[in-house]
Structure formats: C-alpha cells, structure tokens
Amino acid sequence: MSKGEATRQAVLDRAAATASRIGLAGLTIGSLAADTGMSKSGLFAHFQSKESLQTQVLAYARELFSDQVVRPALAAPRGKARVRALFEHWVATGKEGGAGCLFVSASAEYDDQPGPIRDQLVRDHLDFADSVAQMFRTGISEGQFRPDADPDQFAHDLHGVMLGFFHAHRLLAESVAEARTRRAFENLLAAAK
Amino acid sequence: MSKGEATRQAVLDRAAATASRIGLAGLTIGSLAADTGMSKSGLFAHFQSKESLQTQVLAYARELFSDQVVRPALAAPRGKARVRALFEHWVATGKEGGAGCLFVSASAEYDDQPGPIRDQLVRDHLDFADSVAQMFRTGISEGQFRPDADPDQFAHDLHGVMLGFFHAHRLLAESVAEARTRRAFENLLAAAK
DNA sequence: ACCAAAAACGAACGATCGTGCTAGAAAGGT
DNA sequence: ACCTTTCTAGCACGATCGTTCGTTTTTGGT
To answer: Per residue in A123-176, pLDDT tens?
Structure first.
C-alpha cells in the first residue's frame, strides 16, 4: 500500500470515528487535519472536495460494518442462528460507537437533503435490508420460521428494534437498553415461528 | 401578544421547519434571518446565543408535538383506543415532516454531545415515554392488555417502531413504509393482549 | 545516487460563522 | 401628541469554513 493510500485510510478512520460522534455533516477539514496532525491543504489534497470526503467516509464505514456485523453473521449456520448472530454483532458495534452509529445519525441527517450522500445511504440501506431479508428467507426454507412470514417486513421490524436500541443506549444511556432490545428481538423471532 | 413575542414565534416556527430538514445543528443565524426577511442582528437580539436559539426551537417543537400528537390522543377513550390514537397522530405528523422528525434527527445528532441540548432531549423523551407507558398501564387496568405486560417495554418498542417508520418514510420514501409500520404496531398490540 | 513522481506544507482567497455595539424606527401607554 | 420602552438595522470584529496555488519535502524505482 502506497504512502498516500495509507494516510488516506488513517484520515478516513479518524473521520469515521468523529462523524459517529458529531455527525457526518459536522465533519470539518480543519479540525480533521488537526486531529491527524496534518495541514489542512495536505489533507484536502487526498479528497477533491468535502462532499467527496463524506462519501468516502461512508464507503469506509460500510466496509467496517460489513467486517464487524455482516460477515461474522454469515459465518454462523444458516437460518435462525445466522439471524441471531447478525443481531448480536449489530448490538456489539452499537455498544462501542462503531460503524452502525454512523449510519443511524447520517440517515437522520440526510433524509431530507437530496444529493450523492443521501443516494449512497439509500443504496447501502437497501443492500443491507436485502441481506437481512435473505437470511430470514433461508430460515423459512429451513423450516425455522413460519412459511407465510414476510422477510422484508422482518428486516424492517428488526431495523426499528435496532434504531430503538441506538436511541436508548446512546442518548439515554439506559442500562436497560440492551435488555429491552433483546426482549424486543426475541418477541420478533417468536412471532415469526 | 407583544410584537417581539410574535416575531420570536415566527422565527421559531420557521427554524423548526428548517431544523427538521437539515438538523438542529445545521441551523444558522444568517440563513434564518434571510428566510424570515430580518437582519442577522435583529433576529439575534431575540435569542441570547445560538445555543439558546436551539433550545428554544426544541421547546417550541415540544409544544407542537404535544398539540399534534399527545393532546389529541388524550381526547380518545382511555386504554387501547388511546394508544391507537396516539399512534395514528404520531404517524400523521411523520408523514408531513412535523415536529416528530425534529426530535428524531436531533436525538441522533446530539446523542454523543453533552450539554443543555442533549439534556433537554433526554428530559423530553423520558417525559414522553412515561406518558406512553401510562397510557398502556391504563389499558392494563381496563383489562385490554395482559396484566403481566411491561408498560416501559411497550413504550420502548413503540418508539422503535416509530423510528423505523421515520427512517423508511423519509429516507427511503418507501410507499410501503406506512403499511409495514401499521403491521408492526398491530403485532405489538397483539402481543400485549 | 539520481530523479521523476507523489505527498505534504504554508499562505492566501472570499464567504460565512456567531456575536457585540450603536443608532434609528416602531410601538404603545399616557 | 408626547415619551419611554421595545424592537430592528447597520456595521464591524475575529474565527473558521472550503478551496486554490505554488513551493518544498519525501518517497520509491532505477
């Protein structure tokens, strides 16, 4: 990996961490340069514009999320166990301000602002929702879920459960957030069997 | 109502609308002044600081939300009907970018930034969650919900359902968002009976 | 060791940010 | 109709925003 690519990755890593705290729109070339010990112009040269920086942060976060949540789940046995593994890894990232948080806050920030950032968020979400639905579908064909259950509805519902988790855990710092989320998830699974 | 108070309200109304689109942190004295046809300093004089403006916008949005969602629900017969009315009005505000959206995006924005704004968001949410739980509790004593159901868990779950709705409706503009949300809500009610 | 290419820097730009200060316009009670 | 209070505009400030440009340093292949 070339030197330039290495620093680009380092910047993106730091940017993703910052963005999951103060939001993707709150990112600033200046403060990001200060964080990484670079000059503003030196950092800027790696990205052609601020918007490009933001979309690259998003792409970087998606890779992170895939590594931390999706791929580990795919390692679990297909069907219900895989859905459960997905949930567990998803919760785990949420507890430590991982990549999941970035998508939650970014989605809320850009849900009404057309442009490439929003487009990318939409694409990523649809992709991920499809993956979830597919995992659930496999559970149906394995006979672990009711055959008349709706995979897309399950993906939607699970997403709502996770949004509720992020809200309760990060905003309210409720110690019960995880317990409530687990109950909600189990209820979801129970309703599908 | 004095002239000053009238313009203050007008500014807050416009600010709330803008904030529900681009976020509470995205508010700007300058652009807000341009929107309302005032000078920057003339507008600023009504609020002592930007942060004060933001907290006042939040307070204004809470009144709006109470008027549009909570109070109409309280007009419905107690118990399950009231919970259902709450849900209906909640969905209605979400469909037209009302006050509910502001809280969703603001919560995501400030969930990791300590300060008065976050504090106010937490207070408002706890208050509202208590109201929801209380409505549900009444449903229990009316015999419409299982006596061993957990009112706080219900409030948490319903909130998750609504977050899922806002996400699907506003980000993805899914036409099925409302239908999925209704199904999720009915499942929640069914599980409580 | 040389040298082209890549990477980082420093300075500067116009714009806009939030925030004061001061003078004038409007409002409203008398 | 006056006078005090309230409201609004104009102007300026330091800071920071994203971005450009020219120069200097570093890198890595030969």
So the answer is: 999 999 999 999 999 999 999 999 999 999 999 999 999 999 999 999 887 789
Cβ separation B167–A118 shorter than 8 A = no
Measured CA to C1', the nucleotide nearest A44 is: D19
Residue segments in chain B with a per-residue pLDDT below the cut of 70: none
Residue B165: exposed, middle, or buried by beta-carbon count in 10 A (0-12, 13-18, 19+)? Answer: buried
DSSP A49: S
Tally of residues, chain B: 193
Give the residue from A24, A8, A77, A51 showing the smallest Cα distance to B26. A24
Helix axes A151-166, A116-141, angle to 10 degrees: 120
CA A122 to the chain's CA centroid = 12
The secondary structure of chain A in percent helix, strand, coil, rounded to multiples of 5, reads 75, 0, 25
Give me the residue label for tokens 């199904």: B183
**Chain A CA closest to residue B165:** A160
Asked if B26 and B102 touch (Cβ cutoff 8 Å), the reply is no
